[in-house]
Amino acid sequence: MWGDFFDVNTLTYKIYSSTAALPDNWNDLAVDNIFLSKEYLKVLEQSGPENMTCHFIGFFKGEQLVGIALSQFLDVNQLKSFGERDRCVKTSVRNFIFKNFSSHVLFMGNNMLTGQNAFHFLEEINPKDALKSLKKASDTLQLIFKKKGKKVHLTSFKDFTKEEISAFENVGFKDHYKFCIQPNMVFEIKENWNSFDDYIADLSKKYRDQYKRSRKKAEGIEKRKMNLEDIIKYEATIYDLYFHVAKNAPFNTFFLAKNHFRVFKEMLKDKFLFYGYFIDDTLIGFNTLIKNGDSMDTYFLGYDESIQREKMLYLNMLYDMVAYSINKGFKEVVFARTALEIKSSIGAKPVEMYGYIKHSNSLINKRMDVIFDYLEPKTEWQERNPFK
After folding, report:
1. Structure pTM?
2. Is the domain of 14 the same as that of 126?
């Protein structure tokens, strides 16, 4: 743990490298976001990606803890692959930029999730004071890594909605590039949907037929809710299924540890749901869900690609996630990024996400508008409306 550091607004902060050192009342500030809780931070600590280093930041007014935050440092040089799906000139340029000019990235936030999972402050704290202190903490973190011989090339504050990002104006981010990235796909659950059948009844004929076709294709697949012992038993297969999907993504900055799902279940218990899909007792796919207050957050999944295509497994997983969330009374399902069009086809809507990024090299930083176009893969897609 590093000692007190003062900013100009009388807020102090402490940077912790271990969850064991966190203040006893840390979770009092994480009640609205499980991804800032001690339990989740322990998951990162015990089973985070090999190329990731996490720090936890406590903000104080006097002796009172008034804010909490997460940072993640990624060394992308440790990756063997950034993703194998897209092979083109632009992808080669992007990989070259990352390897040679941007291999050390400091995220003030969570690069493994989509949405504002970076920090939380008490309402009594002025938002501008909070953000100034957060930026000061990022400067201190850069010094910490520099002393360890790891210069931070890129510093990024992510992911924020249009309303949330407006608070960053006039608080010291003028030399940062403001970016807009792929949207967060959020499925809003209507108040009149008391069951999954109500959702199906609201679909237009075209998308009701899509639902029926996908369910028919999935005949022969058994879905099982898996407990900790099951996850441990199938751990090797689970990782193979996950890694197959992950390595074929358009872009990766990390890969999960092999024990990640086991540790997740150990730490979050019934708030972490793991569902396996089986054919004749062979695990051919899985998905995961995290209960986060009134929201259901989807997490990582995996599948056998050949079976996925034949059985429309991914689409069936999306329907299953929606069904559970409606039936259990959640208000929304956060589907995050990727596969935007198919998520749209079941009713998820895009929410634009913004952030700020800065390169340590002033010359490169001046051209971040050009460079960012290479760092963030673009996806062309068409939004769907499946309802009547």
Report:
1. 0.92
2. yes
